[in-house]
Design goal:
The protein is of the alpha+beta class and about 200 residues long. The chain folds into two domains: about 120 residues, no CATH class; about 70 residues, SH3 type barrels (Roll), CATH 2.30.30. About 50% of the residues lie in helices and about 20% in strands. The chain has eight helices and seven strands. The protein has a five-stranded antiparallel β-sheet. A hairpin with a 5-residue loop joins β5 and β6. About 5% of the residues have low confidence.
Amino acid sequence: MRKTLMIHPNKSAQKIAARALDIRKKLPKYKRGGLDPLEAHELGIGSGVKRAIDIASGKKIDAYRVQRFFTRHRSNFINAKLKNLKLEDSKALQAWDLWGGEPLRKQVDIEIKKHEKSIENNPREKLDAASNKIPYSKLAELLPRKYIIRLSKDNNQFDVLFTGYERRRLHGRTIDDNQKIYFQKRHIISFKRLP
C-alpha cells in the first residue's frame, strides 16, 4: 500500500499551474505537454491536465504522488532548462509547470520530511501509517520496547510491556501480574512511554 499525505498547494504553485494551462490551450496539439484526460484514459494513467486543474484551483493533492512525478521527470526538466527552452517550446517544461513547478516540488519535499519525522517520533502514528498487511516481523520493529501498550481484548483492558512476536502474533507481559499475553494489531488502543 502506497503512502499518502494530502496537502493544499501553495499560491505560487497554483499560479504556475494556471499559467501552464493557459499557455497549453493556445498551443497546437503537437506542441502540448501533459496528457489531457482522454489521452490519459486511453493509456490507463493519470492526466497531467486534470492534476493541473486541481492544483490551480487549490484542491488537496497527494504529496507522495506529486513527489513521484517530479522524481520521474526531473531529467527531462533539467535537459530543457540547459537548452534554454521556453515553456511554449518544451513539453517537459509544460508538464513540470502543470504540476505546480518548483514551488510545489519544494513544498512537497518539506511537507513529506515533516510528516515522516512526525511518524518517527510518534509510535502510534508509525503503527497507523503502516499497512494492515504489514508482516508481524516488521511491526515488531516498529513497536519500541520502552513503551507500555494498552490493549482491549475479550472486553478487558490490559497494560502490556511489548516483548516480541511469534507465529503472526505479538506478545508482551502484563504490567499487573507479569503474565505473557498474545495479541494482534486490532487490540492496540494506545501507547505510553515508560518513565
